[in-house]
């Protein structure tokens, strides 16, 4: 087995106390210092930074291009670069961490713990199993792992650390772990499955009410792999990389004056498959447009009036009290208010007119729940009942500051057991918008079924919308992306 090659930024980074190995600088390695060495060369990349497009990043990138076995790999560097990516791989690790916490003296751990890992080794024997499994998932020479109590124990951070920052005690642990690592047979990680297509999921990990939870995103990643799609979570910072993918799935609340719309437009211009497509965002996010569209096609809806400053005084006679006022581009029950009398109507309408020249007024229909029918490619995907929040007339009750929201309960129905009229009416409404993914909200009072609105970015959360289909729901989504990608290629 050939001797490993250590790559450092400065030769002084390699301490005398470390094992005697062949050491070269990053710049020498990049300029070809390893040319002529064994094709199966083992490279330990100890650059001071693995930041994207840094010399440390390029060291691993060129090592792989040259056929060298390098630690960390480019994929590991990418996986560690954004918490939103690596947290999808930590569910099993967190379960193990919680078990280990339970076996550890509680006076040692209060609300947080930091572990240093050197080639999968740690100085705390009780944490060794977790350290090994983390290293198996993220093969990096030195890692700092932070655990925090966030209701329950979670891995809050996994960060690559440069040996130069270690103190004397930590350097000794690093040297010992390196010796153990080199004494083992260096197994090349299993080659990753080559996927037919690449799908980007745009999400915002800081969004308070995201359309898909972390668990649902993880399900999408797994379902993609099952049908030959490599799924990667991206954020707004990845706009410049969008053309690298075959398709875009927007799992962030959309709006016209928002980067989600720009992502959709960019993806469409690149010839990519995109859900939500720009036209769907444009049409669905404006309730005034939807109201007129449903009216023109005689889709049942509550009595609805498009309101300007000129006709606001006519609402009392047309709708009576209470009535519902809506800002055109509200979402998640925000921008939807109830006026119980003339004074409230004047005040609330005045507030809305500060932001929009037109608003919407609807007759008030109280029901114990709203229906939502999820529709994909003009076929029903799921059916849910969302019950009103406790002592409230909406399914979400926002606090006065617009922060936390209290939700009511839910029930997920098999499509063929849901009321046929509800599903049929939802399909009529969605077909007017296109063949994308929509969530049609409806109210039912006896035999009367009306469409409240159509969402281009409906919630898909694990344990809720997938309550009937489970994994099959996510596979259906991914299979639809595959179908559309392959249709583009014809």
UniProtKB/TrEMBL annotation:
It comes from Acidihalobacter prosperus. GO terms for biological process: SOS response. GO terms for cellular component: cytoplasm. Transmembrane segments: none annotated. Keywords: ATP-binding, Ligase, Manganese, Nucleotide-binding. Pfam families: Dala_Dala_lig_C, RLAN. One of its GO terms (molecular function) is metal ion binding. It comes from the Bacteria. The keyword ATP-binding applies. Residues 291-486 form the ATP-grasp domain. This is Carboxylate--amine ligase.
């Amino acid at each position: 087995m050939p001797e490993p090659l250590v790559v450092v930024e400065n030769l002084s980074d390699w301490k005398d106390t470390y094992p005697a190995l062949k050491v070269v600088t990053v710049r020498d390695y990049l300029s070809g210092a390893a040319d002529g060495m064994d094709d199966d060369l083992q490279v330990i990349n100890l650059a001071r930074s693995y930041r994207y497009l840094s010399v440390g990043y390029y060291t691993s990138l060129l090592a792989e291009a040259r056929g060298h076995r390098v630690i960390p790999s480019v994929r590991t560097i990418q996986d560690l670069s954004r918490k939103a990516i690596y947290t999808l791989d930590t569910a099993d690790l967190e379960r193990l961490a919680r078990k280990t916490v339970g076996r550890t003296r509680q006076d040692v751990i209060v609300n947080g713990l930091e572990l240093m890992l050197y080639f999968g080794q740690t100085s705390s024997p009780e944490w060794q199993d977790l350290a090994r499994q983390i290293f198996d998932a993220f093969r990096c020479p030195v890692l700092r792992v932070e655990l925090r109590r966030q209701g329950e124990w979670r891995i809050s951070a996994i960060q690559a650390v440069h040996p130069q920052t270690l103190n004397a005690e930590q350097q000794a642990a690093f040297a010992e772990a390196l010796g153990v690592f080199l004494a083992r047979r260096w197994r090349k990680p299993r080659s990753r499955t080559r996927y037919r297509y690449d799908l980007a999921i745009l999400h915002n990990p800081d969004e308070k009410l995201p359309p898909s939870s972390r668990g649902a995103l993880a399900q999408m990643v797994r379902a993609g792999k099952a049908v030959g799609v490599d799924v990667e979570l991206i954020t707004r910072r990845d706009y410049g990389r969008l053309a690298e993918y075959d398709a875009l799935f927007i799992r962030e609340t959309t709006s016209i004056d928002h980067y989600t719309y720009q992502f959709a437009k960019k993806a469409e211009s690149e010839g990519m498959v995109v859900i939500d497509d720009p036209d769907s965002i444009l049409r669905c996010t404006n309730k005034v447009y939807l109201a007129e569209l449903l009216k023109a096609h005689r889709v049942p809806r509550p009595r609805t009036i498009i309101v300007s400053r000129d006709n606001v005084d006519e609402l009392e006679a047309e709708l009576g009290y209470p009535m519902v006022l809506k800002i055109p581009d509200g979402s998640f029950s925000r921008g939807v208010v109830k006026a119980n009398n003339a004074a409230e109507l004047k005040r609330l309408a005045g507030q809305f007119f500060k932001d929009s020249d037109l608003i919407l007024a609807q007759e008030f229909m109280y029901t114990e729940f709203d229906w939502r029918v999820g529709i994909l490619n003009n076929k029903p995907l799921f059916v849910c009942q969302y019950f009103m929040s406790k002592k409230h007339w909406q399914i979400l009750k926002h606090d006065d500051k617009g922060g936390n929201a209290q939700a009511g309960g839910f029930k997920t129905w098999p499509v063929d057991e849901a009321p046929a009229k509800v599903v049929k009416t939802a399909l009529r409404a969605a077909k007017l918008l296109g063949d994308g993914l929509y969530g049609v909200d409806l109210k039912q009072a006896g035999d009367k079924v009306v469409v409240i609105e159509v969402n281009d970015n409906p919630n898909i959360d694990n344990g809720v919308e997938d309550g009937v289909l489970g994994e099959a729901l996510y596979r259906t989504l991914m299979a639809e992306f595959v179908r559309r990608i392959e249709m583009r290629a014809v």
